[in-house]
């Protein structure tokens, strides 16, 4: 790749780890894979931020502030998070346990009824495992549900066969159970198929980059090629005017951190951003290029406060070849590069924070074409990302680069 160039404004940086130097040969600039057809029109929505200096253990908190330039939206965020907590408990905890209890305590009395009951519950649990965000409660909980299903079905199957159960259900309750099982089977199959389909590359160009993380383990919260798995895709609608300034982020990937026991935080939803595993995680340049924008002075907010005006918060935008790579919601005071700096693969960029329109610490990363002159910085045409050769979808895990 040759000797690294340093512009007049560049700051000294330490050499990348040895493994990163090898990666530079591959990711000297992002590999853009064009499609035979033109890319779809898209739209985008990230979020930029504001704040006063705050260190890792001292997040800014402005409660009850009205919405305005550089101000926080607070009350509605707390209500929304309370609603989401209730939804998680109902859908991702109570509902799976209820279905498992149903098959364990009230197995169908006929062969057809039991087969459909077992298959319906399995199908629904699989779809739930693929579609839901499992950063909360914990990413491995669907595996526990799967193990419980195997135990229950394994215990009941030989008993029902030995008992010589009739083939078809009898009575209204028997047929009602079969109908419910069939509905679960169909719903699970449909949502499961949509989750699998999200692994297909979208009809846009694809940018290959290196892993942007330092050491650690990370979970994809949003990612994939359909709206079921990637909430950013709602911004592909060109008819919605408020999405147009953010259209570049339509195929973005959001990451949470995984700490001890696979938990994303020390607590259910602690207010202190430093309690989250990803807060302070090292970020490195995923491609060789030049910094076109960098900001590092905006505050990290207490959860779930956010800045709906400065949506990107602290961020770095890299120009690598013909594409731009955007890393958003970085930690205040951690950004180590400035506009005009040349970077090599593996150069330190900063740390993950909770600045901008971020209701809890996470990394937002996306690829786009450069925006038109005078247009908002992330309004360029959206591109898809492959990280270390993987097109990541919700629920995937990624290990950071080792030293």
From TrEMBL:
The keyword Translocase does not apply. Gene3D superfamilies: Glucose Permease (Domain IIA). Residues 38-54 have a biased composition (Low complexity). Coiled coil: none annotated. Residues 9-18 have a biased composition (Basic and acidic residues). Residues 280-369 form the M23ase beta-sheet core domain. The keyword Transmembrane helix applies. The chain crosses the membrane at residues 86-105, 111-128, 140-161, 173-193. One of its GO terms (molecular function) is metalloendopeptidase activity. InterPro entries: Cell_wall_metabolism_enzyme, Dup_hybrid_motif, M23ase_b-sheet_dom. Keywords: Membrane, Transmembrane, Transmembrane helix. Residues 1-68 are annotated as: Disordered. Pfam families: Peptidase_M23. It comes from the Bacteria. This is M23 family peptidase.
